[in-house]
Model the fold of this input.
Amino acid sequence: MKYIKTRSKKAFRPFVGLAICLAFLTNACQQPSDKSQTVQHAASAGITEFTPKQVKYAKGFNLKYYDGYKVLELYNPFNTKADTLKYVLHAKGIELPESVKALPSIEIPVKKIVALSGTHLGMLDLLDATEQVVGISNKAYVCNEKLLSRAQNGSVIEAGYDGSINKELVIASGADLVLTIGMNSDSYNRYPVFEKAGIQTLAIADWKETSPLGRAEWCKFMAAFLNKEEIANKEMAKIEAEWDRLKVLAAEATTSPTLIAEVPYKDAWFIPGGQSFMAELLRAANTNYYWDEDTSTGSLHLNLEYVYPVALEADYWINTGTANSKEELVGFDSRFADFKAVNKGLLFNNNRNIASNGSNAYWETGIVNPHLILADLIKIFHPELMKDHEFVYYKKLK
Done:
């Protein structure tokens, strides 16, 4: 068996302190000479939330606010060259300036949305806007019970997935906007048939964000189509404040436990990279994650023999796939019985919040509630700091 080289004690020093959130994007705003007239103009056009909002954490989009319209900048993360897609969002009847007339336009507020990702549904739920949803990918992967009910009675269509979307069904739904999952550069120009039908399609790569606050901040992106920026900004402010409070609390812990995450499949173990979404959560929770210094933003594809020595000695094991008990987890591979975390019973899975159809809310509402995930993780690794916290997304395996 090939063993991984152990790192020095220094490499395992506890993570202490606060992570510095860098402002990656800035907002630009055309300032009119008479602010009161501008607000009145915007309100008469149906745009009531007009104040420019700074995108602080998300790297995939930006919003610029002008008199009676907004310009959305959507960045293609799959293109090595600069590739910014721009859209003008405007109320009905607005006379747009020549400078933006050539941009694809979307009339707002959008009334009917086909949302093909659970994260999109989580954002819409945060904004109290699930009534605008007329289409989903598949009800088997939706947690929102109201949407499930509407899908059951046929008022919400099941459109399928990227690459195999039922285009006729989407067009018949009367949707104004289709939100697909941005998986590669082709995603951004895949559905010209919708454009011909007067339906704008946007490929969203919110999953590429490595910062938990960055992913949550996509609620501002969604809010721009609905004129619900006021709600988005209030919710984001609460999320940010609670995230910061919890990080300070976690830093007070006197220990930084080691851990292993995920489960191997056919001797392949997909471990969170050191700059990934999960790794950022683990840093905020004051843990000693072995791959913390890795620079990967996605998952590391490692073989079981490479991970095995680390897993043997890890204090905790989290995100244990579909396992709901210690016995079930060991049933995947008898070698797991040798792991320290298994013997101590320190096993936790992120599947506590399951909908009636069996889908996991962690992947839908958890993305816009990173503070709740962080609270769960601190409860796991530093229970003395979170005695009164009830798990939202995680549970202990018995």
